[in-house]
Amino acid sequence: MVLCSGAFDGVHAGHVAYLEAAKAICGPDELLVCAVAPDEYILSAKGRAPYWHQADRLRTVTALGCVDAAIPQQHQTVATLIRDHRQRLFVKGPDWEGRLPEDIQLACEEVGTGIAYVDTPGTHVGNTRPTDEEALARFEDLVLNQKPPAKPWQPVTDYSFDWRRLIEGEHSELIWEHLIPCDDADVLDYGCGPNGHLVRLLREYQAAHQKHSQVCVMGYDPQAVTVNRVDLVSEEPALRAIWDLVICREVLEHCTIREIRRLVTRLCALSAEFVYVTTRFAQQPAHLLSVETSDDLDPTHISMTNQNWLRHLFVLEGFKRRADLEAKLDWQKKGRCLVYERAA
């Protein structure tokens, strides 16, 4: 066999060229086996959560005709697999030449595996990114022509309170433990949905655990209604920084880019201390201005931006990132949590 490896967290033309080149140097009776890195490798090597979990990335690589088999890499290094399988060749792309980790080189030496670097000129992901001018032109065209969703948001999954309680898991507890800044804080869930499920969950946790009785948790949504157990803010909150924590979850992806910019300004104007946002992002952004305008979940998802592009909007409003709090709130490790604090 011939072994190759990678994260393949969003297969692009460079990956395909690498795998095709690896297959081309296989002997007539040899199999090309591809080791797919674990989620933990992406977290440590790239500093972010994977866009797709390892099982999904395995399915994608397996579907490529140039690969005979894809296997899960159980450790952050492929050295263990090299020792276990004792393949004839270990193949990497040209960008690894001169910087292959020492533990992999030692494993190859121990079992007599050769190392080959295949040439895939012009196909590495870095060479397929648009120039700044091209990216800006695409962004301008999108922003000036983007329309709101054709229909108002309607749940496409079970949006009952019992199901939301299951989905939210420990989320309410994490908000109380890490984002409620004082005993008499005012909390606003902006875009809380028509029934204010998170507001209700936060209040239930407050009552059950006798948390800060003076804390006020409210919700606002243009489609909101007054329902049992939860009274929601009926009018757009005035732009005064009176809320110690402003929450905005799974809202931005339903907005146009211009609406996102205005909404970030509004959220920051309402907050005296923290803004907590969750949203979906472009899965494989080629540029800071990359925007995906659809996904496989909801037809009203029209704006999945590069995460760093959204972050810069908060910085421009005078807020600073709290990466420590983001890590605590991101209990599902999806990389969608943003926490910003008003700068002194």
Strand content: 15-25%
Distance between the termini: 60 Å
Would you identify the CATH H-level superfamily of the largest domain?
Answer: Vaccinia Virus protein VP39
The largest sheet is: 6 strands, mixed
Provide the CATH top-level class of the largest domain. Answer: Alpha Beta
- The side-by-side strand order for the widest beta sheet comes to 7-6-8-9-13-12
Mean pLDDT: 89
Individual helix count: 12
Plain-language structure description:
- The protein is of the alpha/beta class.
- 35% of the residues lie in helices and 17% in strands.
- The protein is built from 12 helices and 13 strands.
- The strands form 3 sheets. Strands 7-6-8-9-13-12 form a 6-stranded mixed sheet, with helices on both faces. Strands 3-2-1-4-5 form a 5-stranded parallel sheet, sandwiched between helices. The chain has a two-stranded antiparallel ribbon with strand order 10-11.
- Helix 8 (171-178) packs across helix 9.
- It is elongated, with a radius of gyration of 24 Å.
Q: What is this structure's SSE topology?
A:
Layout: E1 2-6, H1 13-24, E2 32-36, H2 39-46, H3 54-62, E3 69-72, H4 79-85, E4 89-92, H5 102-111, E5 114-117, H6 132-145, H7 161-168, H8 171-178, E6 186-190, H9 197-208, E7 216-220, E8 243-249, H10 257-270, E9 271-278, E10 291-292, E11 304-305, H11 307-316, E12 319-321, H12 323-329, E13 337-342
Parallel strand pairs: 1-2, 1-4, 2-3, 4-5, 6-7, 6-8, 8-9
Antiparallel strand pairs: 9-13, 10-11, 12-13
